[in-house]
Amino acid sequence: MIEAEWWEYDDADEMADAVAGDIGFIVESAIDARGECLLAFPGGGTPKPIFERLAGKSLPWKRVTIIPGDDRLVPVDSDLSNIKAIAQAMLPAGARVYPIAVEAEDYVMAGHAADARLKSLKWPPDLVWLGMGSDGHTASLFAGPDLEAAMDAPKARLAMGIHPDPMPPEAPVDRVSLTRSGILSARTIIITITGEEKKALLEQAIEDGQSSKLPIGRVLAEAQFPIDIHWAP
Ligand code: 6PG
Questions:
Q1: How many domains is the chain partitioned into structurally?
Q2: CB atoms within 10 A of CB 1
Q3: pLDDT score recorded for residue 103
Q4: pLDDT at 12
Q5: Does ligand 1 lie within 6 Å of residue 161's CB atom?
């Protein structure tokens, strides 16, 4: 079983302060060590208050590149776009916000384009920050025709196009996503989730390890270092 450390908070505000503090520390350490920092942020609603806290911190943002760990194939100004949420919060702080999704008819081609864009960055990321859906997906590793390829992608394949099947009702669109090996190449991984239901699901996925049927369980089962999980009700 992977080593997971759970951090539990009274509410989402308290979690946002703590997680923003931890990410601030990762940024400072990366810049001390290498002069720059690469962060992959999640989509969805949970991270938004954390983006705001983080953007308010006085950090050398000009040396920080932020990518979405996954994105929906929608116009960049769509409310479904993960890069839009990241850009709205982090561009004013001065960070370099780097989209990975291109608008394309063909999600497979969009995945190749995302992979090529990521290869132009200095890999590995200092942080891959993940969320989790109530179906157990993480990043955009969803059940469907692309899941096995994304799980078994070689180390050199950082991102892929994903067609979720069934489509998630909150954003029923094709995606691009870090592959499992892209996620696991990070120097640090953290997870933020809220609610009792997701907590129970993630605890079970971790316990099931390699035999988990959930994408998040299958990703974490291969992690080679401890992972911090931040949870609020
Ligand atoms: C996405 C995500 C996804 C997200 C979860 C949780 O773009 O869909 O990156 O993995 O983290 O769906 O989303 P919520 O925080 O909104 O529950």
A1: 1
A2: 10
A3: 81
A4: 97
A5: no
pLDDT at position 104 is: 86
Does the Cβ of 188 fall within 6 Å of ligand 1? no
Instruction: Let me know: does 73 contact 101? Beta carbons within 8 Å.
Output: yes
User: What does the pLDDT read at residue 140?
Assistant: 98
Whether residue 136 has its Cβ less than 6 Å from ligand 1: no
Residue 177: phi and psi, rounded to 5, are -150, 150
User: What secondary structure does DSSP assign to 78-114, as a single string?
Assistant: STT-HHHHHHHHHTTTT-EE-------S-HHHHHHHH
Q: What residues in the chain have per-residue pLDDT under 50?
A: none
- 174 close to ligand 1 (CB < 6 Angstrom): no
Asked whether 217 lines ligand 1 (CB < 6 A), one says: no
Q: Name every residue whose Cβ is closer than 8 Å to that of residue 18 and which is 6 or more positions away in sequence.
A: 7, 9, 230
Q: What is the pLDDT of residues 71-122, one digit of tens each?
A: 999 999 999 999 999 999 999 999 999 999 988 889 999 999 999 999 999 9
Q: Which is the closest atom of ligand 1 to the Cα of 141? A: 10
Question: Domain range spanning residue 43?
Answer: 4-232
User: Which 8-state DSSP code applies to residue 125?
Assistant: P
Task: Work out the burial of residue 156: count CB atoms within 10 Å of its CB; fewer than 13 is exposed, 13-18 middle, 19 or more buried.
Answer: exposed
Output the domain CATH number for residue 62.
Answer: 3.40.50.1360
For residues 208 and 217, the answer to whether their CB atoms sit within 8 Å is yes
Residue 179 CB less than 6 A away from ligand 1: no
Residue 164 Cα to ligand 1 midpoint, Å, equals: 13
